[in-house]
Amino acid sequence: MQTSTQPSTKEISELLSGFWMPHLIACEDLFKHLEYVDQSMKQIRAQALKSELESYDAMLAGQVPADWRFKEYRKRTIVTLAGEITYIRRIYTEPSGICHAYLDEVLGIRTRKKLAPDAFLWIAKMAADISFRKTARAFFERTGAKISHWLVLQVIREEGELILEELYDRLTGKDQVYPGPLRFSTDTLFVEYDGINIPLQKPVHEPKKPRWLYEHDRHKQSFELKCAVAYMGKNERGQRGGAIHFVSGKAPGQFWSLLRTRIAQYYVPKDILAINVSSDAAGWCKNHALDELNPEARITCQLCPYHVNREIRKAFGVGKKANYIIGLLYEKRAGKVLEILKRIIAHAKKPQVYRDLYNYLKNNITLIEGGRPLSMGTMEGTNAHVYAARMKVWGGAWSEEGALAMALVRAHIASGQELIAPRPDNVMLSKAQVRRRERYEESLFKGIKYLPEAEGKGYEPPQGSIVLTTHMAPSDCVKIRHTPTLSRFS
């Protein structure tokens, strides 16, 4: 009996070398030859994957359920990092009339989705750093497949929904669906939180204007995203250990519950004995609910140094006086600072700025003297690097759903977590397909021959020639579990 062995990597490379050598001899230009190699490699990969998928579909033909009937061959095109792949696969129908693309279901290829998971994740990571149009151009240069910037936007929104879906499942106790990563154990946790204002898109587009006039008249309306970061502390180089970022646009009550869930996803709550909190102590930041993470933990709140330093420099400017006042506060001598301000207010020609500083420090003196852990930072710096660096440049604006999706993606990447690949949707049935299958089963039980119902649209062909869509998950699908949307958490 003859046995076939796969060719080795050396044999394949020798075949490719012999295939490319004539072009190198003809052009005698390494740069042109490398471009030729790149293009030909894309074609070779696409053709090889096409043949592989069609061969595997032929192998699966003998494994379909016995009551399925072959209907037709149908073409399908997907976009991968290897380029566009167009292949032909078999379509089968159940006795109830529901269609199945068995190859797609076995391999987890999503129905009516253009992007393969590898291309989806690459686009999501790239779009988190550069604009959607630049991402589409970079994807074309890499793969040779053209995509629109609207498709890039859809990828970001879908990835944001996947991140929220995972978090929502953990909030409702469905940990068995997504097994969590290895969690950290620490006795001290540092938490910083604050809001960031994102420019809001106008409901309608304005007529085209010159760039300078557009920037001058740009609408200033914005909305707030609530951001937080939790970490174990900082090392000698000032780098955070085990930093977990989170962002939400929901009301404070929902924000705290989601933040606690995110922290519990990566930290063991019962091991946390002390929680150091830093914020600007304004609005929703005053009433945090982190004590529910571990009721036995000791919570120490402090005022964010950034806001304190900003208020001091508003009154004293940038110089030795401001540095002296800041140094006293770092030494927890806020009482002496208040005495100095009293004397300055009594003799100043314009005492209002000093009076404002005095009232600000007096109202927050417990937070200022409550403790200033050396490992704490400022949330404004985190917001600038994680969110504003992508979302508050180029004079652009965002919708609330789009901004939340982008912020969730960037927070996930900044936390060192891998983005979530889209899951196959061929485990779902639409409501119409469920009713069709139920009616067929009822007809078998009653001994009645099943016929599809007519909808009064005129002539309909016989049952054997009805054109049916493949097994897919439309908007009215019956899903295995609840899936939240971005609007629910925005």
User: What's the gyration radius in Å?
Assistant: 30 Å
> Helix and strand string, N-terminal first?
HHEEEHHHHEHEEHEEHHHHHHHEHEH
> Mean pLDDT, as a whole number?
79
Beginning-to-end CA distance, first to last residue? 65 Å
Our estimate of the beta-strand percent is 5-15%
Main sheet strand line-up: 6-5-4-7-8
Instruction: Give the number of DSSP strands.
Output: 10
Name the overall outline: elongated
Helix content: 40-55%
- Which residues sit in consecutive blocks of at least 5 with pLDDT less than 50? 175-180, 458-484
What structural class do you assign from the helix and strand content? alpha+beta
Number of helices: 17
Biggest sheet statistics = 5 strands, mixed
Short description:
With 490 residues, the chain is of the alpha+beta class.
Structural overview:
- The chain is an alpha+beta fold and 490 residues long.
- Among the domains are: 9-114, no CATH class; 180-414.
- 46% of the residues lie in helices and 14% in strands.
- It is built from 17 helices and ten strands.
- The strands form three sheets. Strands 6-5-4-7-8 form a five-stranded mixed β-sheet, sandwiched between helices. Strands 1-2-3 form a three-stranded antiparallel β-sheet, sandwiched between helices. It has a two-stranded antiparallel ribbon with strand order 9-10.
- α5 (132-143) crosses α6 and α9 packs antiparallel against α10.
- The longest helix is centred in the first third of the chain and has 31 residues, at 30-60.
